[in-house]
Structure formats: C-alpha cells, structure tokens
Amino acid sequence: MKMIRAFIRPEKEQEVVLALEGAGFPSLTKMPVFGRGKQKGLQVGPVHYDELPKMLIMMVVNDQDINRVVGIINDKARTGFVGDGKIFVSPVEVAYTVRTGEAVL
Amino acid sequence: MKEITAIIRRDKLAETKTVLDELGYPSVSIQSVDGRGKQRGAVCDSDLDPELPDKYCTSVRLTPTPSTYALEHTLPKVALFVPKRMLTMVVPDDVVSKIVKSLIKINQTGKTGDGKIFVSPIESALRLRTGEKDGEAIS
User: Fold this and answer.
1) Neighbouring-strand partners of residue A55
2) What residue ranges define each of the domains in chain B, with the CATH number in brackets?
3) Which residue from A68, B28, B67, B115 puts its CA 20 to 30 A from A61's CA?
4) For chain A, where are the alpha helices, taking DSSP H only?
5) Across chain A, how many H-helices and E-strands are there?
6) Cα separation of B16 and B20, whole Å?
7) Chain A partners within 8 Å of B120 (Cβ)
8) Residues of B in contact with A97 (CB under 8 A)
9) Can you name the residues that pair with A88 across neighbouring β-strands?
C-alpha cells in the first residue's frame, strides 16, 4: 500500500474528488494547508505573498492503483501555470479499518 | 520507528488521548481534517455525532418523481465530506501493535465512519532542543 499526498489548488479540489470517485477511489482525507514552492510565493505588483493556500489531499491506495490515481489527480489539477502543486507517494505497511478491527484497506 | 496515522471521530478524541496517556505514549499531533470513505461522505445516522450539521445527513431521500429526478440531475454534483480528527504519532516498533489495538478498542462503534489507522515506516527522528537522534528523540 502507498500513501498519496497531493498538494493542489483549492479551487480544483471538487473536480479532482469527483473524478477520483468516478474512477472508484472515493476514500480520501483533505485538509487546508499553506505553503510555498520554488518561486518563493507570489509577487503581485508591490505585494508579496510568501505562503499560498493549497488543499492537501491524502489517500491510501493499493500498489497497483498508484499510477491511475496519480494520473487522475495530475489530469484534473493541472493548469500549466506555476502553483499547480506536487504529489508525494510514501509507503504504508498496514491499514486498519476501525469499525471491523481488520487489517484491510 | 513507525508512524501511526489514525483518522477518528471527533467525539472520541478526549477518550483516545486519555488512553494514550495511560499507555505511556502521550506525544501526538492532532489535526482537524475532512474525510470521506466508501460511503462517499454520506452520513446515515447523524445521532452518532450530535455536533454534525443537518446537511451531512443524506439518508433521507426525496421520493422519486419526474420533477425530483430533474432536480437531482440539473444540480451540480457536490462531493460531501465529514469532519474528522487526525492523530499522528511516531512510536518505537515494538509498541505499534499495542497502540493500534487500544486505538481500535476505544474508537470502535461498529457503525460506518469509525475511521482508519495507517502504519508507515519512519527513517529518522531528531529532537530539536537537544539534538538527540532516532530512538532517544521519540522517548
């Protein structure tokens, strides 16, 4: 199993979530975060925004689904401009469902 | 070292913290998150969490008539989320199963929406105050 953490534009969140749901991956957790990247924020005229709001989408999926899920997020969240975000994939050893207490995703 | 990420009901947080205290692993990061699972954010029994606003109760559906069908299909689809609490803690390998077992015991209600627990590996840890590494940093 792998954990996917995707930092996306907040306005793209609904689109990404509905696309994932349509592809059979409805389970995820989201949280609002603030961050900056290579461009060190955003300069609009004299105003400098050091940290920009992003939506962090966290989901755990089976190994064979990684490419599909990352592909869907990439498709839906991309605008082609700086600030589209990043996707990180990290290993997860076990996932428990609290309701049943079983170690299944 | 392992990282335990538990996504649990909001009303179980206090109890969970007490039990973690008793186990001797009180260090935990807590975050308010919104989540959805297999049920796609639908909450059938909102009485499980009295704080939950009515809009989350999606179990009552209109009787299907041509007009309600038209209404459902013209409204833009919205992805629903349920407010949850996410606990993150880094613990030594040998106590992982003990902590997971007690987390499951406290948070289990047997109804959908109980949450998930993920265990993932952590390579290293550092305590900023003293510069201690790995094992000492999380003790």
Assistant:
1) A8, A32
2) 2-138 (3.30.70.120)
3) B28
4) 13-22, 66-77
5) 2, 7
6) 6
7) 3, 90-93
8) 114, 116
9) A5
| pLDDT one-digit tens code per residue, B34-86 | 998 887 876 655 445 556 665 555 544 445 667 666 666 777 777 788 889 99
Which of B34, B86, B90 to mutate against chain A (most A CBs within 10 Å)? B34
Question: Is residue B73 exposed (0-12), middle (13-18) or buried (19+ Cβ within 10 Å)?
Answer: exposed
B32: which strand partners?
A: B85
- Which residues on neighbouring strands pair with residue A87, listed in sequence order? A6
Query: pLDDT for B80-125, tens place per residue?
Result: 888 899 999 999 999 999 999 999 999 998 888 889 999 999 999 9
Report which of A5, A3, A100, A8 is spatially closest to residue A61, judged by C-alpha positions.
Answer: A3
CA B117 to CA B108: how far, in whole Å?
12
The answer to pTM > 0.90 is no
ipTM of the predicted assembly exceeds 0.90: no
For residue B5, give how far its alpha carbon lies from the nearest alpha carbon of chain A (Å).
Answer: 9
Cβ proximity of B115 and B39 under 8 Å: no
Q: Strand A47-49 and strand B29-36: pairing? A: unpaired
Of B39 and A102, the structure prediction assigns the larger pLDDT to A102
